[in-house]
User: Which sequence fits this backbone?
């Protein structure tokens, strides 16, 4: 069905406006012509053709107005989406900057603390010797284990 | 004559009901890109080299804390990214 509508839609809009007017005129002409001798034999074919044409024109007129309505709707949606895309790009840029700044701060903090450890290394190591078992436990805690690994 | 006009009227009504049976092409926003800064896996925690020095242990612990904080920042970034994008999306598709 849509293929037929699509093919008919290829015709310019003014043709359908013209055909609608012509078919309405045809319907009335069909009624009036029956009073004229010699021509009255053509009234029925004229009436039938006009009605068929009028139906088709009304359908296509509706289709044209719907198409215009949908085109406006699509344009509106596309504008909204374009605005949203711009907004999300700006939001992404903000998040990116924030994360980079925070990570730099963390790195600087770690570096500062590591330097501090180096400065007071002798004090830290003076009264404590770490047993191998303690290191094994810490390393074990640092590992990411899957549930099956513990079985 | 009356019959003809009734048929005509019914036919017009049918045509009007069926008028413009077309479909709207779907218009969807594209899936938003995730910033590379948050779209990375958190690194594994650092293990301590065999040592007896407490300073080496403390150093590793401090570095692991740093790794945790970086990972936390990434997770916070994901949450913020999701909430922001959701708000923008909902605003865009709202009627």
Assistant:
């Amino acid at each position: 069905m849509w293929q037929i509508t699509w093919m008919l839609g290829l015709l310019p809009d003014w043709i359908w406006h013209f055909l609608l007017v012509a078919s309405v005129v045809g319907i009335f002409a069909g009624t009036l012509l029956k009073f004229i001798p010699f021509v009255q034999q053509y009234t029925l074919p004229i009436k039938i053709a006009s009605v068929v044409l009028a139906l088709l024109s009304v359908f296509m007129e509706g289709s044209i107005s719907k198409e215009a309505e949908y085109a406006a709707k699509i344009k509106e949606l596309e504008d909204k989406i374009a605005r949203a895309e711009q907004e999300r790009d700006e939001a992404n840029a903000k998040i990116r900057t924030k994360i980079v700044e925070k990570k730099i701060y963390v790195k600087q903090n770690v570096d500062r603390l590591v330097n501090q450890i180096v400065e007071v290394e002798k004090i830290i190591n003076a009264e404590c010797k770490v047993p191998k078992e303690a290191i094994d436990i810490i390393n074990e805690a640092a590992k990411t284990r899957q549930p099956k690994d513990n079985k | 004559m009356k019959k003809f006009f009734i048929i005509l009227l019914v036919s017009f009504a049918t045509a009007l009901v069926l008028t413009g049976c077309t479909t709207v092409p779907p218009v969807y926003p594209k899936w938003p890109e995730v910033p590379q800064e948050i779209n990375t896996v958190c690194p594994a925690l650092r293990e301590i080299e065999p040592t007896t020095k407490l300073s080496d242990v403390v150093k590793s612990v401090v570095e692991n804390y740093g790794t945790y904080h970086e990972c936390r920042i990434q997770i916070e970034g994901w949450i913020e990214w999701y909430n922001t994008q959701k708000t923008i999306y909902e605003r865009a598709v709202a009627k």
